[in-house]
Amino acid sequence: MEKRVVFSHKLLPYLLLAPQLLITAIFFFLPAGQAIWQSFFIESAFGGDQQFVGLDNYTSLFSNSTYYSSFWVTLLFSGLVAAIGLAVSLLLAVMANRVVRAAGAYKTLLIWPYAVAPAVVGVLWAFLFSPAVGTLAVYMANLGISWNPRLDSTDAMTLVVIAAVWKQISYNFLFFLAGLQSIPTSLLEAAAIDGASPFRRFRTIVFPLLSPTTFFLLVINIVYAFFETFAIIDTTTQGGPGTSTNILVYNVYKTAFKSFDYGSSGAQSVILMMIVIALTVIQFRYVDRKVQY
């Protein structure tokens, strides 16, 4: 017999959901509504005066070359973070899943980076790759590799991608490891008896069975790259040099708190939210069809 939970009081389920609904309303729906409202106005730098301009803030964005640059930088950055992060995390999960001795220690060490705040991650990697005193930068200079993320756009993008991937590896690793441990060993043993090589077993058995986990992490990593990497960008490159690492979420911050253009910042926030929603819908509509559940 299937056990079902029965609430004796009709209000109890709503009371249990109330804290989460309240947090969602305060920290998501309220700021989103405020951004939508501000996007139709022009405000003075110190607040107080508002002038309704309709869709002028949106039309001015699409005639701004800096905004287009931020859009393409965001696409490149999110694609690199998602692809490299998933590939490295899957490799680490496969290796950790095969370890017999001290397996718990390896898994614990791989989980630790997730506990580090994004701002701390940015400061850490900015220090390691600092052209003047950075340990890794000194080794690269000794190898004859020219490195300066403050002046070179490619170096700056490499720095923020490495920092963002390192921060998210632990999250991806946990899900991949759980997915690997849920695969029946009998399937792999039967394939090995039939003469399948380790690579073929992974390609034909392991990876297809991990497709639901991979799909979930793909969505999460793209949203992470769009929204949750603000602190990493702010503490490493501040969107520079030029606009080479000026992703959309950081451009929203600069427009509002450095240029004091709250109307344009609100419009950018709305567009960014719509882009992420559209990407998520596309992934669930088309990529989900290739997932084997």
UniProtKB/TrEMBL annotation:
Membrane-spanning parts: 12-30, 71-94, 115-141, 205-227, 267-287
Compartments in which it is found: Cell inner membrane; Cell membrane
Residues of the ABC transmembrane type-1 domain: 71-283
GO cellular component, one term: plasma membrane
Main location: membrane
Source taxon at top rank: Bacteria
Bilayer topology: Multi-pass membrane protein
GO terms, biological process: transmembrane transport
One matching Pfam family: BPD_transp_1
Assembly behavior: The complex is composed of two ATP-binding proteins (UgpC), two transmembrane proteins (UgpA and UgpE) and a solute-binding protein (UgpB).
Listed name of the protein: sn-glycerol-3-phosphate transport system permease protein UgpA
Protein species of origin: Advenella kashmirensis
